[in-house]
Design brief:
Layout (H helix, E strand, L loop, with lengths): L1 E4 L1 H8 L5 H4 L6 E5 H18 L3 H10 L3 E3 L1 H4 L3 H8 L7 H10 L3 E2 L12 E2 L1 H7 L5
Parallel strand pairs: 1-2, 1-4, 2-3, 4-5
Helix pairs in contact: 1-3, 3-4, 6-7
Length: 136
């Protein structure tokens, strides 16, 4: 399976949360994200650094090492108008990721409830862990 990853799952993976179990799972073929989403992750590095008492430069290196394929906006630009119609009024920060998922025709991997009403397949971390029988 291929997935479009939201910032919240990437942040979880970054700090050793259960999302990390999915990034290297054999049934998860490729995880994609947007430049916008990756920027969101990088914005939270100083906060995580303080919370987890980890050097921010180490966390930034860990962000760069995440096994995620970064997709440029130009590749999914034709889907931005549709994504804006579906989620723009609810959460403009999610437009880019929704556009990517629409373009690639893949589920969004997120724990953000804003994606529940946008007519796209949505997978949460817990749902994926159960589906792949990592947890019951």
């Amino acid at each position: 399976m291929n997935l479009a990853a939201d910032a919240n799952v990437l942040l979880s993976a970054l700090i050793g949360g259960r999302a990390r179990l999915l990034l290297n799972h054999s049934q998860v073929h490729e995880v994609f994200t947007t430049e916008h989403t990756l920027s969101e992750v990088e914005e939270y590095v100083p906060i995580l650094s303080k919370q987890k008492r980890l050097p921010s430069d180490i966390l930034l290196l860990a962000v760069a090492a995440l096994p995620v394929t970064l997709v440029s906006r130009a590749q999914y630009a034709k889907s931005i108008a549709e994504a804006t119609k579906r989620i723009g009024s609810r959460d403009p920060e999610d437009i880019e990721l929704l556009a990517l998922a629409l373009h690639l025709q893949i589920p969004i991997w997120s724990n953000d409830r804003d994606f529940e009403q946008v007519d796209v397949d949505l997978s949460t971390t817990d749902g994926l862990l159960r589906h792949l029988r990592i947890i019951e």
